[in-house]
Write a structure and sequence with these properties.
This protein is an alpha+beta fold. Helices cover 65% and strands 13% of the residues. The chain has one domain. The longest helix is centred in the middle third of the chain and has 38 residues.
Length: 142
């Protein structure tokens, strides 16, 4: 079978077709997608896709909460609560970094370009950078 492995994004001969459960992009209902993966990466990819299926909504909810908290703290910052607003925004950025490190999900375009493994590593790196940035913001105020 020809194509690129969804896990490592390399072309190879020993690829097999894997069917994973997904959600319909507009309706949110269950759907199936056929992807190609190397034999040696099949187990790792199946574990990752099961984790995405279980934790996808939690990831979106956590990112939404972090972003709403940042917007609320921006309003507090504009209203004059400079210390509370700045520390709160720093802590919300740290929380967003923790979410990205714990649940390293990325866009389908990034997975198609780099492979699922590299996209997850980049998401973890972005999470670590956000944690560092948030701590830096908090330490600036204190």
């Amino acid at each position: 079978m020809e194509g690129r492995c969804i896990w490592c994004n390399k072309v190879g001969d020993n690829l097999r077709q894997a069917t994973v459960g997904t959600r319909h992009p507009l309706l949110g209902g269950p759907a199936r997608t056929d992807l190609v993966v190397h034999e040696e990466h099949a187990d790792a990819f199946e574990r990752f896709s099961e984790r995405v299926g279980r934790s996808g909504r939690l990831f979106l909810a956590a990112v939404g909460v972090c972003l709403l908290a940042m917007v609320g703290l921006e309003i507090a910052l504009v209203a004059g609560a400079r210390t509370v607003g700045t520390v709160g925004i720093g802590m919300a950025v740290v929380a967003l970094g923790i979410v990205l490190s714990a649940l390293p999900f990325s866009t389908p375009q990034t997975v198609a370009l780099l492979g699922a493994r590299t996209a997850a590593r980049l998401a973890r790196l972005a999470g670590a950078l956000l944690i560092g940035l948030g701590l830096f913001v908090v330490l600036l105020v204190l």
